[in-house]
Amino acid sequence: MFIYGIFVTILFYLLLPFYYIIRVLNGKMLYGWREKLGFFDCPDLGNKIIMYHGVSVGEVIALGNLIKKTKEAFPDYKIVVTTGTKTGQETAHKKYGDIADFITYFPFDIPTCVNRFLNRISPSVVLIAETEIWPVFAYCCKKRNIPLYTINGRISDSTYNLYKFLKLFFRQILKNYSGILTQSQEDMDKLVAIGAPEKITKVMKNLKFDVKKSEELTKHGNYRIIIAGSTHKGEDEIVLEAFSALKKEFPDIKLIIAPRHLQRVPQIVELIKKTGLSFSKRSMNADFNSNEIIILDTIGELGKTYSLCDFAFIGGSFNKTGGHNPLEAVVYSKPVISGPSIHNFRDIYGILSNSKAGKVVKSPKELQNYMKLLLSDNEFYKQACLDCKTVFDSQQGALNAVIDTLKQVL
Questions:
Q1: Which domains are seen in the chain, by residue range?
Q2: Where is 153: in which H helix or E strand?
């Protein structure tokens, strides 16, 4: 590891100027580079610190309930959250600014940066979401007797094939871990195959499925409701086109559109007017007695509104956003459909798509066809709803698995 540390340090400083120039030419900056080098101001956190790391948005969001539960279970400990990306930082500050005691960037994985980081923040335990393997950081934690865990661990087929080829290297790294907790038996088997010690590698299931129901609403009327949740620019047109076409064949269907950003409501109003369908807004106490479409133009109601629908389209998936959390609907046993851009929740869709609980479509036409299937095939729809519950129930327990692990360490 000493030779490896010298090698990556030299390589890092040689390539950094070129990387910086490329980023600038592409109109980007090295966000958080000072922090990643280990230069940051840090409050006095004491010597009882639990550190969580999520590289980007998806991982940071997945840590939400766990961070809250950790604060409750270990009130004497400070919580530090680190991320690797700018969007991850923004999400962490937005979601955990009033919970975490300190939020910063994860250090570059070279000895000087890692040691500066650990000198400023001396965690009692470190938990890294998913499978972020940093050789130098793992070695330094082991050397300082800091327990290091991978939680919610997973490994894709492509990554697995690469890591398996470098098995001897990864075996030396993974022996520095105190525990490796995976999302599934398959992930566990893959990690053991690339060198993870079998005695510390266990299945914990998926943290992202620790979603709680909001209050459940009651539907009044003999109609079926489709929700288009967290839609972005360009997606309302897709949904309205599909709904208008399906309405001719299934006159009992209704639509709720919940835009991700409420400033877009006036544009959505204009789009609906072009369809000729009746509509109103939730803020005006709209109901479906006289409306075909309701715009959910209020804050904080989408979660419980999913309980009303028969199935949902999850927005942010027909652009480059990367999708939004489908489990907000699945928790109510409501099947979900998304467009092809789901990289923020790819692992969740990987699980949902193995059943009828979730479907990722490639085009607006495929979206309309799948909606038609759910509306026309009653047996298919019933199975999709059952699959939602089966999948959700099968993934419960991940949060408690991590808390129990912390109780054994702290």
A1: 23-206+396-409 (3.40.50.11720), 224-394 (3.40.50.2000)
A2: strand 148-153
